[in-house]
C-alpha cells in the first residue's frame, strides 16, 4: 500500500502529516498528488469524505515550498474557490494544518462580514487565498484583490456551485486569472453544465481521477425510511431522540423556516438543538456548528446548502425530516454520517405526498431503502410504538425489506416503546443520556498552526471573515 513517504512530498509536509497521524494516502490522494506535484491539471470526481482537500492542498503546498517567492500584492499565488463559508474555512484550516512547518500565509474571505479586515489581510499578498465567489467578485470590482499573480486555481464542489447559482460568477472570476496557470477542478457529480465548465477552465488533457461513487458511501450507511403523516413528523422526531444512540444528529429540512421550526420543536421537548441556514449570520452559524461539534447540542437542524461540505466526525444519525426535491441531495445528506470510514445511520421521513421523491431517490442510488421493521429496528426506540408495523414485510413492493445490516440492533427500552407521541418518559434533559461530558473529538486536521485574527473560538472561521498566518 502506498505511503505518504513514497510520494516525494517535501519533508515539512511529511512532518505535518505525521502530526495528523496520517500514514497512507486515500485513493484520490495517491492518484492525484504525483501528477499535481508535477504541475498537471486535475479533474477530480469526488465528494467530501474522500480526502480530496489534502489531495489538492498537499501538492500545492509542496510546489509553493519548492519555488519560494514573495506573494504578489493584493493577490495570491494560489486561489481556491469554495461554495460555502464553512467549507472555505475548513479548506483554509487544512492548508494551515498541512503547511504548519512551511511558514506560508493563508487567508480566507467570504461574505456576510466586514470588508476592511479582508482588504488589510490581502494588501501585502498571501500564498493561499480561499474564497467564496460572491465576496471575491466584490473585491475584484473594488480592485482590493487582483488575480494576475495566481499560479494555481482550485475550484471545489463545482456541482454545488451550480446548485447555488455561482456558475456565472465563476466564469467572471476566471476572466481575471492569467491564461497560464494550473487548474484543479473538483465535483461530486458531472452534470452537463459542469462538464462544459471543465472544458472552459482546464488545460487540455488533464489528469482524471474518479473516486468513491456515491454508492460506496451509501452502502456503509444503515438506512431506513419511515412512512409518517406530515403532521406527525415533529412528534416522531422527538421520539427518536428518546433513544440514547441518537447522540449527534443532523436533521435536514427543505426550508429555512422549517429548520427553525423543527429546532424550536426539539427544544420544547428538552432536546438541545440549533439550526443553520442561509439567513443566519456568520456568527450564529459558527456558534451552532461549534456547539454541535462540542456535543453541547444533540441536534443540528440544517438546510442542504448550509450543511453541504461540513466535515464533522461522529455524526451518529442523519434524519431527513423532509425528502429533498433533488435525489442527489439524499446521497449528500446521508454522507454527513459515516465519515472517515465509520458506519452511520440515516432515517428518512416520508409523507404520502413524498413517495414520488422516494422513488426518484431509489432510482438514482440504485438501491431500495428498507422501510421500518419493528423486529429489526428496535434501536429506533420510542418510534417503534408509533409506527405501523409492517412485520418486516415490504410495504410498497414485493421485494425484500430486510435490513442489509444488523449492527445497530439494541434491546428495546421498555419505557420508550410505551411512549405516546410527543410524550417524553425521561423528562430530564436528553443530554445526560447522550454522553454527558464526553466530548467526541473533531477529527479534521488539527489546528496547531498559526493564529487567527478573529479570536480563538472553535468551529472554524472568524467573525471578521478573514484570518491569515504569516
Ligand atoms: P475531505 O474529503 O477532504 O473532506 O476529508 C475527509 C476527512 O478525512 C477529513 O477529516 C480529513 O482530515 C481526513 N483525511 C484526509 N486524508 C486522510 C488520510 N490520508 N488519512 C486519514 N484521514 C485523512
Per-chain topology:
Layout: H1 11-20, H2 27-37, E1 42-45, H3 52-66, E2 76-81, H4 85-98, E3 106-109, H5 116-123, E4 126-131, H6 133-142, E5 152-155, H7 158-163, H8 167-176, E6 182-187, H9 192-201, E7 207-210, H10 214-220, E8 221-227, H11 233-240, E9 249-252, H12 256-268, E10 273-276, H13 282-294, E11 299-302, H14 304-307, E12 317-320, H15 327-334, E13 344-350, H16 355-365, H17 383-386, H18 414-417
Parallel strand pairs: 1-6, 1-7, 2-4, 2-5, 3-4, 5-6, 8-13, 9-11, 9-12, 10-11, 12-13
Helix pairs in contact: 2-3, 3-4, 6-8, 15-16
The structure holds adenosine monophosphate.
Residues 22, 25-26, 29, 48-54, 311, 340, 443-445 line the site of adenosine monophosphate (AMP).
Description:
The chain has 470 residues and is an alpha/beta fold. It has two domains: 4-210, P-loop containing nucleotide triphosphate hydrolases (Rossmann fold, 3-Layer(aba) Sandwich), CATH 3.40.50; 221-399, 3-Layer(aba) Sandwich (Rossmann fold). It is built from 18 helices and 13 strands. The strands form two sheets. Strands 3-4-2-5-6-1-7 form a seven-stranded parallel β-sheet, sandwiched between helices. The chain has a six-stranded parallel β-sheet with strand order 8-13-12-9-11-10, with helices on both faces. α3 crosses α4. The longest helix has 15 residues, at 52-66. It is globular and about 60 Å long. The two termini are 36 Å apart. Residues 381-386 and 388-470 have low confidence and may be disordered. Bound molecules: adenosine monophosphate. The site of adenosine monophosphate (AMP) has 16 residues, from α3.
